[in-house]
Amino acid sequence: MPLFSPRSTHGLPGLVTAPVARRGVLGWMAMGAAGAALAGCHRAGETLRVGSQKGGTKALVEASDALAGAGYRVEWAEFPAAQNLLEAIASDAVDVGMVGDGPFAFAYQSGQPIVAVAARRVENRPAGALAVVVRAASPAHGMADIAGQKLATTRGSIGHYLALRALAGAGMAPDAVHFVFLSPSDAAAALRSGAVAAWATWAPYTMLAQAEGAQGRPVSGQRFLTALAVGGDVACRMGLALRRPMEAGGWYPPPILAGMGAAAGAASLLGLPAAQVRDALSLMLCQNVMPGEIKHSPGTVIRAVREGFPAQAAVLSALLAREGVAGFEQPIEGRSGFYALYAGGQYDADALAGDLGRTYWIEQLTFKRWPSCRGTHPFIEMALELTRGIDPARIAAIEVGIDDVQRMLTEPAGRKAAPQTAIDAKFSIPFTTALACARGRVGLEDFDAPSLADPVVLALAAKVHAVPEDGQGWQRGSGGRMAITLSDGQVLRAQQADALGCPARPLGEAALVAKFVDCAGRAAVPAGDPVALARAILNIAQRDDVAQLFS
Length: 551
Description:
Layout: E1 15-16, E2 25-31, H1 33-39, E3 47-53, H2 57-64, E4 73-79, H3 82-90, E5 96-100, H4 101-109, E6 115-122, E7 130-134, E8 150-153, H5 158-169, E9 178-181, H6 184-193, E10 198-202, H7 205-211, H8 221-240, H9 253-270, H10 274-285, H11 308-322, H12 338-343, H13 349-353, H14 377-386, E11 395-402, H15 413-417, H16 422-426, H17 429-439, H18 449-452, H19 455-461, E12 464-468, E13 480-486, E14 491-496, H20 509-520, H21 530-538
Parallel strand pairs: 3-4, 3-5, 8-9, 8-10, 11-12
Antiparallel strand pairs: 1-7, 2-5, 2-6, 7-10, 11-13, 13-14
Helix pairs in contact: 8-9, 9-10, 9-11, 10-11, 14-17, 17-19, 20-21
């Protein structure tokens, strides 16, 4: 089902199509000589090797259950494009596969040993199933607008055929554009980066390009910040309205609440009307779970990417809602909606929406100074201050006063004193406190494998003793008390009301830029000038096209 394909080929900016004047659009079943013989005489126990293009034959056959009761086994092989499938048939890597007429014609005329054994005629191809795609900011609306520029496609594909027909339809010669032959994934990357002006491709790649924002109007900085504010506010409000902790039902709240906010933010970014925002939240509810077991399994690293799952689901939910997939009437407050599922129906409607549009809770969020759970931050800060200039060997004991929220960061004591994974270490008050005392810093580099096995750090972590308190005098979950006893009996004391980076104690711009530069330098594809990029992001409100920041 072409959920993301445009309803009208000519109504979307960024989508250029050619009038492909043919007797319908034919799909050819191609076979090698051996495959043609094999197809007609399969016996029990034999195997038919079938090639499928991404999102093509395999998905259709399996969905329709067409092979139920077949007297032979089917072995599937998936290919990114038709010409790869045809090459596999020609080399006897697979027996049979479905391709478009354009790729078959290219391959047959080049002398590949293949034959067509069946064909089907598609009368009503979905709009946008074949398209020449351009970036959102491109002024191009036809082939003439990209004359002399680079056009990516896959050699011998239906996209290649489309481009040639589109050029002919515009009265242009084949060399009027500079063809760049790439695989679909490389072509998508080239278009995204601006290395090519356009990409001639086919479904599902046209749909993926649309979903990624290759089409549609540019996203301005103001529009982006509005969506960010909307998403943050929804996530905060849904949490503040709870009157029964989600943990009581075995759930882990942060990614679940963030996912609902992300769906609302994505819907805002797409400019969806109220009914479709509701649909997006409904669809998100269908995918949005995170069990509390994530806190209790010492070997898992899922906690490190916990927001990745709901973020992906949120984008998909908003896109599906935009394409008309209907949700529920009451996804939030319904009798089996969000609060019924996660809080036994116990929530405060006034806290959820009472001052909506007047108070924005995103302004009350904290920017984290250190790369660990926010609940560890007051103890990191106090340890850094109290032990400045003190030899770690002089530390005899460390007592930390914690509240009910922070207990999970100290228990079970043995596991928290000697965590086995980086993410478990980041959720440990004993370990992060020990890092601060031993190294005078807590950075991303301090959670690698050697650090987890550092005998000095582990010895200090074992000296940390947690004392549960009522939390009076500090912000629940982000404050605390510390007393460090030295070998000579001296006791160093401190108490922190709230974590550094909170609204009352904000991080300065220099600290934010430094943190961004440190993180960006560890990326798989590091930014060319991370400082300049950080400055540009800080001034994102003035941007006409946010995508240009990363192109």
